[in-house]
Task: structure prediction
Amino acid sequence: MLAGLDPEQRTAVTAPAGPVCILAGAGTGKTRAITHRIAYRTLTGEVSPRHVLAVTFTARAAAEMRARLTALGATGVQARTFHAAALRQVRYFAPRLLDGRQMPELLESKARVVGLAAARAGVRADRTGARDLASEIEWAKSSLVEPGEYPVAAAKALREPPFEPALVAEVFAAYETLKRRQGVIDFEDMLRAAVWGIDEHPDVAEQIRAQYRHFVVDEYQDVNPLQQRLLDAWLGGRDDITVVGDASQTIYSFTGATSSYLIDFPRQRREAVVIRLVRDYRSTPQVVGLANAVIRQARGSEARLRLELVGQRPPGAEPELKIFPDEAAEAAAVARRCRELIATGTPASEIAVLFRINAQSETYEEALAAAEVPYVVRGAERFFERTEIRQAMIALRAAVRSTPGETPLVQAVVDGLAATGWSREQPPSGGAAREQWEALAALVGLAEEYAREPALVPIGDGGRVQRDVSLSAFNDELARRAEQQHAPTVEGVTLASLHSAKGLEWDAVFLVGLADGTLPTTYAKTPDQLEEERRLLYVGVTRARQWLWLSYGQMRSASGRARRPCRFLPQLERHSPTERASDRSRKPDRRRPQVTSCRICGATLLAGADRKLGRCPTCPSDLDEDLHARLLEWRSRTAAGLKVPAYVVFTDA
Ligand code: ATP
Ligand code: MG
Result:
């Protein structure tokens, strides 16, 4: 087991019981080291698998850790997200802690309840406003800030609240009241309940601590104060804990995460074994070189800890920046390249297209679909936001009452979905209906996966209980996944936000939309926010094993302004691929002309979806002559009330 590790990793793996901390850059084998440490300690009999709790931040990372442990022969270890571990604990102890009262249900959509709370507090918030308020409340709760403390805490943390801080505090308080009345809890409440159970109930604390004796935390740079509080409650002053992280990859500070726990760990626990790794086993030296260049300029408290990565893999292609006329051309070129990669032997699942904001996903979904490249959208609010999935979740909750007691879970789900008109046997043959059918089939796939997990789960000191595989437990699992945006996986090119790509790797990675205004987003204004954007780029670059593509579309379709490359990229060779007619995967949408204002003279023009027309007819120098002549002709026809193509409308005419 020690053979596939370098000397520093080996030190981490074989370190005796007690605090261990690995501080190292991306791709240096931190996750590998902790999975080997768990396997090593359990297989040598030093610790029992059932006494280990490994926590990480996404369900996918937890599942991956379980898979890696199983491959190493270490079974029975609990590898969970903070949320899943807390949910399990709260559920298990609920009968004891709630005096027979029913456990509150998990809130499905925070933004909806926040919207209601805003209305109660007299704050007018549209959908975006409600969503921004919800993230502000999430930040406060994750940072252990109560409603009354919010204005001061927000000012101290240099937050940029969507409304006056006092109003946010009011909405926050109203939200808490509303939830209590409705008998629902959110995910932060669940973590708080887990902490409360331990703090206030010595027997619960004793039982938990008897079970969990060895702790491992991956991606520790993204822990927030509430999660740290839970970790401390679990530990109860003990110190057999291994943490690994990279402060340069802190990308969740907007939700309250802070790398200070990681940075301070060696100082807080002076006996800790502290290990630094610099060999990068993931990426080609070219990619490693770019990653170093991106993060070298970073400022912040973690900078002094940073060591340059040293690439270990054979050389590959030099990354270059490709600049396209617009986003549609960029997406079409990405789709075409994906096709080529797949045709030359790269599995689709080894390719990822990563972007800054989820709204970018749609352009790539369309382009990949048009190029007939299979894709999977990760990050998955898309999956759980789909109408048919929402309806299915409602139907499944309703089905709990009507499902006979002994029905196996998968059958219960299939029956429940039948109420929405879905039939497992009859997949429709085209288009949108098929897509909906596949989404529901993925839901059944989730039920199958859920039912397959080990039937007995360890509890307490050596005991085991039957895992709850009822429809109602599965519904809770779905609500949890919806909240965590953890969609089921399907084979295909991964489309993911940079945030959800953390810890993962692919042979080929496309980093798209690398223009100022998208990365960094226009919302990042303070120096701290901009530093977080830089770290996001670093996370993105370091996901690629072999092949890295960087690009952006120069013209934003709506505003028509040419954009500049992402300011965090070092000087790279630039390349403006010429567009071919076949590059366009989408036909121009002639039904929806777009309003464009000329930057130079201010004339307004509705230019259809042929984005080459996005220039002003009164400033002809930018246009080729042919086009100019056509525009002038259309303009005079419009003025004369004659027919012009439906997608050409001069609004100033
Ligand atoms: P991140 O910061 O992105 O989470 P990480 O430090 O956790 O990265 P891993 O995912 O553990 O890195 O490892 C990166 C890749 O390098 C994996 O494919 C892993 O299998 C491989 N790797 C790690 N250590 C070694 C090693 N000693 N020899 C060969 N390959 C290794
Ligand atoms: Mg990792």
